[in-house]
Amino acid sequence: MKRIGLSAVALTIGLAAAWPAAAQEKPDALGLGIFTFTSGPAAAYGMPGKNAADLMIEQINAKGGIGGVPVSATYVDEAQGAQGVIAEYRRLAADAKNQVMVAALSSANCLALAPIAEQLEIPTVGWNCDTHQLLTDGKSKYVFRPNGNTVPEFIAYAIYLLDRKPDVKTVAIINPDYAFGHDAATIFKAALKALKPDVEVVAELYPKLGSPNYQTEISRLTTAHPDVVFSNLWGGDLENFVRQASPRGLFRSSQVILALGETVLQRVDLPEGVIVGVLGDGWWMSPDAKANPETAAFVAAYKARFGEYPVFPSIKMANTLIYVKAAYQAAMQKNGGKWPTRAEIAEAMKASKVATLTGTTETRADNDGLVDQIVGVTVKSPDHPFPVIGQMVRYKGDKLMPQAGQDPIGWISTLTPEFAKSLPKPGSYK
Amino acid sequence: MRTILAAAGILVIAALPLVAPWLQFVLTLAVAKGFAALGVAVLLRAGLISIGHAMFFAASAYGVTFLARLGVNDFAVLLAVSVLAAAAVGAIVGSFLVRYRAIFFAMLNLAVSMVFYALCAKLYGVTGGTDGMPVPIPTIFGISLGEAAFKQVLFYVSLMLIVIVGAAVHRYLDSPLGHALSAVHTNEIRLEYLGIPVWAVLLIAYVISAALAGLGGAIAGFAIGRVVPDFAFWTASGHLVLVAVLGGIGGVPGAFIGAFFLELLHSAAVTVTDAWNLVVGAALIIVIMFLPRGFYGFFEREKASAL
């Protein structure tokens, strides 16, 4: 009798404890809308991101999902243009199951989605878009970008270049003809002007996005004979450019900087000594990445599944998903293990500091992310048939970012050669 | 009979967002493209294909953002002025383009629109380049609404505009000026001998069609909240021709039927597969093969049997 009474009490207590937990039902799946290019020329950049998302979500689910809830992603093709992307965003947002949007790759799409994210109050995490215009007003409540922006990404190249080639006199620029290319040129030129005012820009070329033929541009570049050629071409454009410029000796006559060069290391034969980087810290062979067993496992699984090592867009996507997962964990910790609402997730993203596969990302007051910048040059590797990045430097993320709300270009003009001297030197990161 | 059908169609569309709120955006966009396609259809009556009407669509959307930048913040004023701007661009471009026929007309429209596209993309400091410019939420007769409420008002206002503008265009097409368009198509020289100035007939049609495209562009700009040069790209122009042909050029509702069909098909296809282009393309081939007069062909036949 006593036993029965005890168990009855235990049952009641158990039920009472279980009751509120049952009331904050966990959903059967956590929906994520993931926006990337899965068709068209930009898929060269978007597919590595999608692959990484597939793999990362599989790994998260293998470990029991997020807070015990499996993740299921709906992919949206950004190649439909802003109208289709917005329509899909709204459709996914209408389903309460989809709590977070990982959007987007293209800066234009991020800019178009940002006001809608604020209106619909859905945490939206930019996984790749990096225009410095996105979060300038500092009023964003639901738009986050753990990935960092164009300002530190391209200043880093100017600083690295001046360390490696202090006597540079002339620079030529060849960037794709859209906002990303023009922004990068503006930032790179402004940084050079501040750090070494006597550098002269002898040519600025903006070939159309998706050009198959760069012969005219290469002729212009070789006749201008600049000390340095800077480019943020990417995807198929970059592969074409490298294939056409190599035989014409551009890489011998000038120091070439390929800001997105890491993405083609495994695909085209880049000569040694080209300055390349990853627009952030997402280099899978960086010392920090190698020291992280989780990263090693991810890279091995990626290589086994897709036949190629990850490129930095893959790492950016993987890091973004880690960021989302960390936000859920933080939100659930804060509210006592309940399943978080969209607002609580956004709250947890604010001012967060998350350890990623390749470093940390710190979300500051304007929701922009502080990530380190890794830059280096191509070197031959005994372990791989393709060149890897050597002579690396890792600039701290906060050093290269203007304060929240500051005009970025105005801030760049205040940089001094002394500031550049205070930063780590090429080869210091090993 | 057809009026009842059209009224029922509009009521169904008006009610759809109550069931699926996200559809409101898709449908607003469909209305916008419907207006632009109607503009294309007006010229198609005269046998003139314009592969450049996205220019007027974009011109008006950019007009909204420029006006907003100058401090104009009233929905009705923004809408009216930007449509007038598109019409003005139409009058300038049209005054020399309507002298051409057939492939020359199509190609010159394409050329002019691509010049416009290039300007939008290249004049970085003025138009924001490929990242475009934001379209702010305007006030409606002095009342400032939240974004969600404004989008709702926009949707129902554009549905009302279908009725009002649609009726006006119907009257126009049924007037001597409208019938002169088909006459241009069949025998232009006879028209001149009858004393009807073909140039003026076509210029009026061109300006009306530019204004219609502009109305669509302004609505799209408000709905999307951002204007990008892609609005004016030639594929967007091609899309408008497609919508017009798909819906059928026999009557005003055709353009809207085509636009609703294509937008909803697109929305459905992207949820199914990455190869959404393939689904859309296949559906178009089927429609063009089996409904040569477009969807509107259904209703035309019904009219014939009723007589």
Verbal overview:
With 430 residues, chain A is α/β, with parallel strands linked by helices. Chain A folds into two domains: 30-148 and 288-363, 3-Layer(aba) Sandwich (Rossmann fold), CATH 3.40.50; 151-279 and 372-421, 3-Layer(aba) Sandwich (Rossmann fold), CATH 3.40.50. Chain A is 43% helix and 16% strand. Chain A has 15 helices and 15 strands. Chain A has helices at residues 2-23, 43-62, 81-94, 107-120, 150-164, 179-195, 215-224, 235-245, 250-253, 287-291, 293-306, 312-334, 342-349, 408-412, 417-421; strands at residues 30-36, 71-77, 98-102, 124-125, 143-144, 170-174, 200-205, 228-231, 255-258, 275-277, 353-355, 360-363, 369-370, 373-379, 388-395. In chain A, the strands form three sheets. A seven-stranded mixed β-sheet of chain A has the order 7-6-8-9-10-14-15, sandwiched between helices. A five-stranded parallel β-sheet of chain A has the order 2-1-3-4-5, with helices on both faces. In chain A, helix 2 (43-62) crosses helix 11 (293-306). Chain A starts with a helix and ends in a 9-residue tail after the last helix. Chain B is mainly α and 307 residues long. Chain B has one domain: ABC transporter involved in vitamin B12 uptake, BtuC. In chain B, strands 1-4 form a two-stranded antiparallel ribbon. Chain B has a two-stranded antiparallel ribbon with strand order 2-3. The N and C termini of chain B lie close together (12 Å). The chains are: A alpha/beta (430), B mainly alpha (307). Chains A and B meet through strand 2, helix 3 and helix 4 of A and helix 2 and helix 12 of B.
Characteristic terms for this protein:
heterodimer; A: 430 residues; alpha/beta; Rossmann fold; seven-stranded mixed β-sheet; 15 helices; 15 strands; 43% helix; globular; B: 307 residues; ABC transporter involved in vitamin B12 uptake, BtuC; two-stranded antiparallel sheet; 4 strands
